[in-house]
Structure formats: structure tokens, C-alpha cells
């Protein structure tokens, strides 16, 4: 391409976006080669829209206009276009101006902005998306305000500016409305942006799951094969829309296949096609995608393999596939996908390789693995659980778990979200979406490839550097129920979909086996629950005895949940009654219906028919009639699940989850207890105390950081000198006890005289730092003689003073040594960590983590989340330490890294927390040019495919 000589083409401005109707468009800078596209685009704009743009009749563009609108310097004059199929559907441009409105260059920080959208594409959110992107470009180029002249009758464009959420001013001048927008993002503009993102991405998934017509491309002429199998599954599931079989090898005489219309190409169907399932070899997929794109197909499910999972050549093939599909506005499930399922009666879609679709239910299931998807479908079916929707995304080159969460957030047919993930391409966004979704319905995640250190083959996503334990902690902070195995995923999903959330951790245990009751009791203690003494009904207990005991337990205000344990009943003849399973199931469901606000689970051993008897409503959700499929509602404040919890059942159709082992039942119940506690706390989120503002000098810190980075030869990584680091921390109310160098005994004595006895002498060599166990720290040196002796012993035993780098520091009050760290991960964001210094954190990994910014509640939980937390609260008679001071320190560190993204790492070690106050004895800071924040910029689809 030819571009202006003075500024290179800004390729990083190119982006794919999802529009309001769920289709995609490409946004890119306009170049000198776009003249014909621009003219063609303008010819398709109505005279009214042209009048609104130019304030006068303007039927065609002159050559001078075309040159002006296609030649930009990408600094003071910028034009962007939204394209579909390579053709313009909308344009936006800005021209930098001075205070008189004349063309200008920097440092002028205002620009005139103007839009033009083809009439056929108005109302799709194109202008709103372009405003986000041109605003980001302007901020990058030093422009802080947009000004726009709009005719009063142009209500659509006025609404675009008004609804953007930016700070704005309006005036009426010379018959037009002058709008001025401050481009600095605000809380309102970010909320508007994310709301639009949610609606658009949810709509794009809804289009895939609720098609009115499906074409299976690659349907074999002979029985068998992937395409023919999917066609049969769609037909057998009773798909309510239109079906088409497509194969370029069909003879011209072939009109129907398996009872559905058969054609050689999607373009020959002659009617709109909403979804195409591609089951052709990878080398033929581009031709099929082109065929679908020209025919207006809305979305693709690509079952074909041979993409990123097969190596470098496949990865490039996958990138080309996504580029091609998005150029036509289509989204993709796959490639290498297993398929999608929607059990809604109005759709009944089984566009997958699963021969038996699941029953209708209230669980949504997303998986990145076809094999795991098969296992989960089979496991849920055996346990009597139904699904609302199922998505097996394969390589998930386009549609990902984030998109599915956007859809499930307000899907009225989904009460519980289950996800099997092998990689998280955008952890920052995932945790944000998961937190919002978990506030209204449970999100349960099992993650594969936890310890491999890389994404599985086929998953071309950025790799996060943070350990899996940290990822798990951050997911739990967002309310996600993180489990370790697919079995636990099913176990938790069954309970959450059929039972109300427990009000607390108190668990009643009853059953006809004392041993099984004791195992359940032990399992409850292991999971942190508070079990009541087990009630033994004896092995002769009949179903009516169970019903009576369960009814009484549920009526007890001292219990929050009940676990029923059952073994086969032995009669007087020494034999078991095969009918007991059904009778016991009926008895338990009858009792459970008397207290629908408390969860009940059953642990049974070899009781035939019991699990089936307890699962009576597999056709629907937790005891409710199947609602009709409805369009996705507008994202107003979502209504919580009835009774504030998923699975509050109607008495006529109570379902009780059954488990073959006490540990599995209790673990699922414990996850529900923890999630319910998170939900209660999330209803009243914490806050950052206002008193911090009085002791924080944000502008002073910004100036210091700018000065340090400005003087650095390499801004990618800078470790300021201790004095500079301590000065920066002090500006945020974090004083560090000074440590003076002591290269010789005389210097050590002079330092002690300056600081005051008693003092500590310690080495700062990297291999000995914080290692008192190696003799590198000497404490409570009361006078000069002790200090000189300690200095001599250190240098004689451990090395020369040059190697040891000894320092002298005033003694701090005795307390518990802790460590506070903050670090920025490019994918996950800023993470604050806390633990006890030394072996607990370094050897045992006993650290707790929270995403920044943390609130007062987060800080309190962070301290209490580590396993060694009792040492802070008076363990074995010791004096409790000043945890409020520690919480304040955590809040200050959080504010520092949140206010200044250039602070990419902070380590405070050790932080000695005494009974009154604390002392920071060591601190290091790292600065760098701040990494890009993909969650604060304009909406865009991932480009790492």
C-alpha cells in the first residue's frame, strides 16, 4: 500500500468489532488506495444522510474531496472506515484544529470529528463503535477533545454523542448544534462501552444458537461421515427451522437427501441461511466460507480439523480462516469443533456429533475439548441432568468462553454455567465477566493444562506468566467456583442446578449407616463445614423413617443443609428389597418439598433405582415447566433467580442430587456454601477508605516516576536506587526503615550512632537476603562492641564485605514477618499478594492473591486467606498483631500500582507486624513503560487467532 511518507501506516489501529446485531465489521485506517471504495460507498448513501453530513445537497464527491478523504498523515488528519466484505459501510475522520477552528498541529488538542454511515447499516451500532476507536486514536495522538457540528434534525448522530458517556457540552450556533466531548474515559463511558460489548457479543452467540435455518456443508452422499452425521442429528433432534444438505459433488439430479433439500452450493439455496456447519477438508474450507459469506450466512460451526492443532502451517490457515469469516461479518465456532446444542423447544438444535442430545434443563455447558465434551454430556445424562445449551469450541479461534458468558449472563434458560477451559486468552476480561455473571448465577470452571506452562495445541492465545494457584485465587475472588476435575464439575453443577443455596455451613447428617455417616462427618470437617452429630436411623430404617427424619432436620433452624446417607435396607429375611430405591427416592423428595429453601444431597451405596427416583424432572430445569425460547432481553438489571438462589424447586417435581461417595457430595455442598457466602458479600462490596486520600501525593509520585523513567536509558525495566524507591513509597504513606551501608566496622558504628541502638546488621547480597537461617542477619546489637564483633563474624564466615554488602538498620518492634508483593501481568492485570515471609511463602507457597484495586474487604480477606493466618491472630497464646495496620498497608500498595501503571512491581519484605503498628524493613520497586490495557481501550475482538 502507498501511505503518506511522513507517517507509517498505523496497523495497530486495525480491529474487528462485534456490532449491535451480533455481526462483525472491520475497522481500519483509510489509505490512498481506497478512492474507488470511498466513491462506491458514497453513491450508496441517501441524499438525506449526505445533507446531514455536509449541511447542503452534496450528490457526489469531487476529485478533490476524494483526495482529501483518502490522504491522511495519521496524526493531525485521520480517517477510519468500517468494512464488511472489503467494502466501506461507514467512515469517520477527525481534523486537528486550533482555538479558531483552523487546521493545526500539536500541541493543539482539539479536533473536528464527522461520521457518515450507509443508510442500510444505520441502527447497527456502527457509529458508536467508530467513535470508540477514533477517540482512542485521538488520545494516542495527543487530542483531548472532539468538537462536532450537527444539524438539529440529525437526531441519530446527536444520540451517538450523547450516549457515549463522555463529559460533553452543547451549544446552538448558526442553526447547528455544537457538541464538545472530553475524550478522557470516565466511569460512565466505560460502563456504556462494556454494556454495548455485552449486548453485541451476547447477540452474536444467540444468532449461532437460535438459527432459523441451517446448511450442512460437506454432507456425504453415502451414509456415515461427519457431515451426514450432523445432518442426521439435526433432523432427529427435531430442529424447528429449515435444513439444507450442501455438497458440490451432488449430481444435478439430486434434490433431497435424508428428507431435506440438497444443493451443490449455499448460493443455490435461494433463501437466507443463518448458520452453516462446515464438514469439509481444511483445504476446501476457504471456498465454503466465501460461498457462505456471499450468501449472507450469519455464523459458522467449523468441524474441520487441520488447523492450529497441527502446527505452524495450520496456525496460519486458522488465522486466514478467521480473517475471511470476519470480513463477511460472520463469527466462528471452531475450527476443530465438536458442535453446538440448544435444547429450547422453539429451536431443538443439535448441530454436533453427539448422537443423543441432552434433555432440556437449566445448565449451560462450554468446553474447549470435544473428548471432554462427550464425557460431560454422557455424565450429565447418566445423572439425570438436562442442559439449556452446549458449545464445544475446539480451537476457539473466534468465539470463546468470554462470549458464552456474555450470552449466559442474561439467558433466561440458563441457571448454572459450567466451563471446561484449557486456556484463558484474556484473563482480565474473563474475571470481569465471570464476576458479573456469578453475581446472578453460579459459574463453575475446571481448567486443564494447568501445569504445562503453555496453551494446548490449537489454542493460539497469549500465555500468562502467573502461576495456576494465583489464577485460581483470582477466579475465586471473582466468585467463580474452581474445581479440579470434570467429575467435580458435574457434581457441583448437579447440586447448584437443583438445590437452593445454603444459608450457612451447618450441615445435618442422617442415614441408616453409622459408618457412612461418620465418613460424611469427617468430609464436612475437611471442607470447612460445621457438621452436626450424625443421626443413625439403623439399617432397618424404612423409607417412611427417612422421610420423617429428613422433614425434622429441614425444620431445625440450627441446620442450613442436609446430607442423607443410605445403604441397602436389610429385611428380616436378610435380603434387600429391589423396590426400596424408588420408594426411598419418593420419600426423600416428599420431605424435601416441605423446606424448599434448604439444600439436600444424598450419598448412597448400591441402591438400585435411587438415583433415577431422585431425578424426576430431567425434561426441564429444577422442577419448573419448560419456558418457551425468547429473544435475549435488553441488559437491564438482571432479575435474580427465584428465592435469590438457583434451583428453588416446586414441590411437585423436586430433584435431589445423588452421589456414590460422601466426599463428592460434601465437596459439592462446600462449594455451594462458599459461593453463597461470596454472593452475600458481593451484594455489599467493599470500598477504598477515604482517609487514604489525605496521606497520598499522587501528583508528586507521578512527577517522580516521570523523572526516573525520563533519565533511564531503557524504560522497559528500571529498578530505582533504594533512596528513590523509598521516596516513591513514602509519597503513598509507606515509610521504609532506613538501612545504612556498613562496608567496614567503622562505617557500621557510625551508622548505628546515627540510627540509635539497638540495631540489626544484615547482608543484602541476593543469595543471603532475608536468610537469617544462614547467619546473614544479626539482631539486637546493643552497643558498639557487639556490632564490631558481629561485623567481623559475618565477614569471616560468609565472605568479604564487598560480597556481602552489609547494612545497619534500627531494630523494629518484635512481631510477625510478612511479605507484600504487587506485580503486573500483561494478561491478568495487577495482582496483590500477601503471605508470611520465609518458608511459609517460599517453600510452601502459602500466598494469597487479589486483583488490584483491592477494597477494604479484599484486604481483610487477603490476610485471612493464607493457611498460616492464625499466627497473626494470637495462635497458641501469642499476642495478636495489628492487622488493621496491615490492611491499610495493603490498600496503600494497591493504590500505588493502580494509580501508576508504570509501577510494574513492588516487593515489601520483610514487613514486621507488631502488636501496635508495623515496620517495612526492605522494599524494591520496578518501573517500566506501562503495558497496554486492552480492557480500557475500544471494543475489539481478539487478534491472536
Report what the structure shows.
By secondary structure, the chain is α/β, with parallel strands linked by helices. 33% of the residues lie in helices and 21% in strands. It has an eight-stranded mixed sheet, sandwiched between helices. A hairpin with a 5-residue loop joins strand 1 and strand 2. Helix 10 crosses helix 14 and helix 16 packs parallel to helix 17. 48% of the residues are buried. The N terminus is likely disordered.
What attributes characterize this protein structure?
alpha/beta, disordered N terminus, eight-stranded mixed sheet, seven-stranded mixed sheet, 945 residues, 27 helices
Mean pLDDT: 88
Count of alpha and pi helical runs: 27
Ranges with pLDDT <50 over ≥5 residues? 1-5, 617-652
Describe the strand arrangement of the main beta sheet, using strand numbers. Answer: 1-2-3-4-5-6-8-7
Proportion of residues in β-strands: 15-25%
Number of strands: 38
In whole angstroms, the N-to-C terminal distance is 24 Å
Residue share in helix: 25-40%
The shape, in one word, is flat
Class from secondary-structure proportions: alpha/beta
Radius of gyration equals 32 Å
> Main sheet?
8 strands, mixed
Secondary-structure map:
Elements lengths: L14 E4 L5 E6 L5 H9 L3 H8 L8 H8 L6 E8 L2 E11 L12 E8 L8 H15 L4 E6 L4 H8 L5 E6 L2 E7 L4 H23 L3 E5 L8 H11 L5 E5 L9 E2 L2 E4 L11 E4 L6 H10 L4 E4 L9 H16 L3 E3 L5 E4 L6 E4 L7 E8 L2 H13 L4 E6 L8 H10 L5 E6 L5 H12 L4 E5 L20 H10 L3 E3 L2 H13 L7 E6 L2 H13 L3 E2 L3 E2 L6 H13 L5 E6 L13 H13 L7 E5 L5 H5 L43 E2 L2 H21 L15 H13 L11 H9 L8 E3 L3 H11 L3 E4 L14 E5 L2 H15 L2 H4 L2 E4 L5 E10 L3 E8 L2 H4 L4 E5 L4 H9 L18 H17 L3 E11 L4 E3 L2 E5 L18
Parallel strand pairs: 5-6, 9-10, 9-13, 10-12, 13-14, 14-15, 18-19, 18-20, 20-21, 21-22, 23-24, 23-25, 23-26, 26-27, 27-28
Antiparallel strand pairs: 1-2, 2-3, 3-4, 4-5, 6-8, 7-8, 11-12, 16-17, 16-19, 29-32, 30-31, 30-32, 33-34, 33-36, 34-35, 36-37, 36-38
Amino acid at each position: 500500500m502507498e501511505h503518506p511518507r511522513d507517517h507509517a501506516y498505523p496497523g495497530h489501529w486495525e480491529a474487528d468489532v462485534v456490532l449491535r446485531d451480533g455481526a462483525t465489521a472491520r475497522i481500519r485506517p483509510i489509505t490512498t488506495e481506497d478512492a474507488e471504495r470511498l466513491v462506491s460507498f458514497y453513491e450508496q448513501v441517501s441524499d438525506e444522510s449526505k445533507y446531514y453530513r455536509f449541511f447542503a445537497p452534496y450528490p457526489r464527491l469531487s476529485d478533490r474531496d476524494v483526495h482529501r478523504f483518502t490522504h491522511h498523515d495519521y496524526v493531525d488528519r485521520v480517517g477510519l472506515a468500517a468494512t464488511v466484505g472489503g467494502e466501506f459501510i461507514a467512515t469517520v475522520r477527525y481534523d486537528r484544529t486550533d482555538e479558531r477552528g483552523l487546521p493545526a498541529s500539536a500541541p493543539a488538542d482539539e479536533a473536528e470529528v464527522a461520521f457518515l454511515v450507509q443508510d442500510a447499516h444505520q441502527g447497527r451500532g456502527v457509529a458508536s463503535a467508530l467513535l470508540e476507536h477514533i477517540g482512542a486514536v485521538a488520545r494516542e495522538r495527543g487530542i483531548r477533545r472532539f468538537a462536532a457540528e450537527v444539524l438539529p434534525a440529525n437526531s441519530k448522530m446527536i444520540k451517538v454523542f450523547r450516549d457515549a458517556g463522555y463529559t460533553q457540552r452543547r451549544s446552538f450556533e448558526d442553526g447547528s448544534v455544537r457538541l464538545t466531548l472530553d475524550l478522557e474515559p470516565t466511569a460512565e463511558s466505560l460502563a456504556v462501552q462494556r454494556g454495548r460489548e455485552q449486548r453485541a457479543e451476547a447477540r452474536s452467540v444467540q444468532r449461532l444458537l437460535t438459527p432459523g435455518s441451517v446448511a450442512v456443508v460437506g454432507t456425504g452422499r453415502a451414509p456415515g461421515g461427519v457431515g451426514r452425521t450432523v445432518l442426521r442429528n439435526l433432523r432427529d433432534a427435531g430442529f424447528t427451522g429449515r435444513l439444507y444438505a450442501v455438497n458440490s459433488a451432488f449430481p444435478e439430479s439430486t434434490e433431497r437427501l435424508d428428507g431435506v433439500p440438497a444443493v451443490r452450493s449455499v448460493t443455490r439455496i435461494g433463501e437466507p441461511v443463518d448458520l452453516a456447519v462446515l464438514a469439509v477438508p481444511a483445504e476446501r474450507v476457504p471456498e465454503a466460507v466465501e460461498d457462505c459469506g456471499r450468501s449472507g450466512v450469519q455464523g459458522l460451526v467449523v468441524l474441520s480439523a487441520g488447523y492450529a492443532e497441527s502446527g505452524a502451517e495450520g496456525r496460519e490457515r486458522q488465522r486466514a480462516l478467521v480473517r475471511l469469516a470476519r470480513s463477511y461479518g460472520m463469527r466462528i465456532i471452531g475450527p476443530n469443533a465438536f458442535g453446538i446444542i440448544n435444547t429450547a423447544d422453539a429451536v431443538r438444535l443439535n448441530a454436533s456429533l453427539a448422537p443423543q442430545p441432552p434433555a432440556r434443563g437449566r445448565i449451560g455447558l462450554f468446553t474447549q475439548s470435544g473428548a471432554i465434551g462427550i464425557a460431560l454430556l454422557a455424565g450429565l445424562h447418566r445423572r439425570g441432568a438436562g442442559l439449556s445449551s452446549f458449545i464445544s469450541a475446539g480451537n476457539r479461534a473466534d468465539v470463546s468462553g468470554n462470549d458464552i458468558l456474555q450470552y449466559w449472563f442474561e439467558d433466561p434458560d440458563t441457571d448454572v454455567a459450567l466451563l471446561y477451559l484449557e486456556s484463558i486468552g484474556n484473563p482480565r476480561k474473563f474475571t470481569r465477566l465471570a464476576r458479573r455473571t456469578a453475581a446472578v448465577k453460579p459459574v463453575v470452571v475446571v481448567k486443564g493444562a494447568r501445569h504445562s506452562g503453555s496453551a494446548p495445541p490449537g489454542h493460539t492465545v497469549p500465555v500468562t506468566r502467573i502461576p495456576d494457584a494465583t489464577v485460581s485465587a483470582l477466579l475465586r475472588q471473582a466468585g467463580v467456583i474452581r474445581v479440579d476435575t470434570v467429575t467435580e464439575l458435574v457434581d457441583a453443577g448437579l447440586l447448584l442446578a437443583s438445590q437452593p443455596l445454603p444459608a450457612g455451613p451447618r450441615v445435618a447428617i442422617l442415614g441408616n449407616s453409622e459408618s457412612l455417616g461418620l465418613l460424611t462427618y469427617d468430609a464436612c470437617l475437611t471442607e470447612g463445614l460445621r457438621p452436626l452429630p450424625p443421626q443413625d436411623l439403623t439399617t432397618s430404617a424404612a423409607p417412611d423413617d427417612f422421610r420423617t427424619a429428613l422433614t425434622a432436620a429441614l425444620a431445625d433452624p440450627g441446620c442450613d443443609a442436609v446430607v442423607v446417607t443410605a445403604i441397602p435396607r436389610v429385611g428380616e429375611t436378610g435380603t434387600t428389597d429391589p423396590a426400596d430405591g424408588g420408594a426411598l427416592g419418593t420419600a426423600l423428595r416428599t420431605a424435601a418439598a416441605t423446606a424448599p429453601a434448604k439444600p439436600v444431597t444424598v450419598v448412597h451405596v448400591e441402591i438400585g433405582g435411587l438415583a433415577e427416583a431422585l431425578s424426576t424432572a430431567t425434561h426441564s430445569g429444577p422442577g419448573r415447566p419448560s419456558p418457551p425460547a425468547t429473544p435475549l432481553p435488553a441488559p437491564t438489571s438482571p432479575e435474580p433467580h427465584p428465592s435469590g438462589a438457583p434451583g428453588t424447586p416446586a414441590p411437585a417435581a423436586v430433584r435431589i442430587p445423588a452421589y456414590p461417595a460422601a466426599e463428592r457430595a460434601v465437596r459439592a455442598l462446600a462449594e455451594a456454601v462458599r459461593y453463597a457466602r461470596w454472593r452475600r458479600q458481593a451484594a455489599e462490596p467493599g470500598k477504598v477508605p477515604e482517609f487514604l486520600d489525605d496521606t497520598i501525593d499522587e501528583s508528586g509520585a507521578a512527577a517522580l516516576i516521570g523523572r526516573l523513567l525520563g533519565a533511564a536509558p531503557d524504560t522497559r525495566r528500571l529498578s530505582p536506587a533504594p533512596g528513590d524507591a523509598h521516596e516513591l513509597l513514602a509519597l503513598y504513606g509507606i515509610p521504609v526503615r532506613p538501612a545504612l551501608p556498613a562496608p567496614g566496622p567503622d562505617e557500621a558504628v557510625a551508622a548505628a550512632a546515627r540510627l540509635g541502638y539497638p540495631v540489626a546488621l544484615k547482608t543484602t547480597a541476593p543469595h543471603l537476603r532475608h536468610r537469617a537461617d544462614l547467619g546473614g542477619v544479626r539482631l539486637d546489637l546493643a552497643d558498639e562492641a557487639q556490632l564490631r564483633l558481629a561485623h567481623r563474624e559475618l565477614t569471616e564466615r560468609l565472605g568479604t564485605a564487598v560480597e556481602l554488602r552489609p547494612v545497619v538498620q534500627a531494630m523494629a518492634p518484635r512481631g510477625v514477618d510478612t511479605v507484600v508483593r504487587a506485580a503486573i501481568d500483561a494478561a491478568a492485570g495487577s495482582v496483590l499478594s500477601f503471605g508470611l515471609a520465609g518458608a511459609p511463602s517460599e517453600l510452601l507457597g502459602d500466598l494469597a492473591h487479589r486483583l488490584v484495586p483491592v477494597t477494604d474487604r479484599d484486604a481483610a480477606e487477603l490476610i485471612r486467606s493464607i493457611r498460616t493466618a492464625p499466627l497473626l491472630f494470637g495462635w497458641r497464646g501469642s499476642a495478636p498483631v495489628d492487622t488493621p495496620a496491615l490492611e491499610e498497608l495493603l490498600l496503600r500498595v494497591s493504590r500505588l500500582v493502580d494509580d501508576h501503571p508504570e509501577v510494574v512491581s513492588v516487593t515489601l519484605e520483610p514487613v514486621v507486624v507488631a502488636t501496635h503498628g508495623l515496620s517495612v524493613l526492605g522494599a524494591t520497586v520496578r518501573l517500566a513503560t506501562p503495558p497496554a490495557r486492552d480492557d480500557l481501550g475500544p471494543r475489539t475482538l481478539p487478534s491472536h487467532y
